Amino acid sequence: MKPAALLALTFASAAALAGPTNPFTETFDNGANNWLGGDFLPPAEHANGGVGDTGYISSQTGFEFNDPGSFNTVFRGNKGLLPGTDASGGAFVGDWIAAGVTNLSFSLRHDIPEPVTVFVRIAADTFGAPFPGAVGIFFVPVFAGEWTDLSIDINPANPQFVTYEDSSFETVFSNVGFIQIGIASPDGLLGDPTLYTVDLDNVAIVPAPAGLLAFAPVLAAATRRRR
Length: 227
Fold this sequence. Notes:
Blueprint: H1 3-17, E1 24-26, E2 36-37, E3 44-46, E4 56-61, E5 71-78, H2 96-99, E6 101-110, E7 118-126, E8 129-137, E9 148-153, E10 161-163, H3 169-173, E11 176-184, E12 196-207, H4 216-226
């Protein structure tokens, strides 16, 4: 076998075996770790000032050209196109159902002059494209100037997931490749040319408590019945 073909096979085998690191917390203490801003550019990195005065990242967003009810993606934890370019070293990439991921959480801070609604879109990896996705809404107002901890249970019965984009819980969460975190456009700021800063820290996935792991096959079966 030619060296190039052997190298490609090695990467393919590694990709097939890779999966989420559960539990895992991205603290950003060592920089952005391949996370991106909403514009696909690297976010600003900060060595302190985060939760517990540790590292965090920040990105800017604005609402000048937004329509009512629209959403701005502010941060992207993407699977990379090349080896070594995955956000957080690929710790969030793969089959969340098989890995027993039951919760995603993160801390967010902003300087937007009114409370905002935050969303997360967790998308499958479809030949490198982020589709379909599960869109989750955090039904709590997030106020300016303070770190707010946000959490969403990875469960098909969770009403925070408002759409699976004509797909299913199982299709998305068995092949996660992308995490997008953002903000719903505040009606009072539509047309405002100001750019606002949003900060992100402690993006984490966790497994179910040991006593609940026995129910994982039941959850998977229930998910299939809903398809």
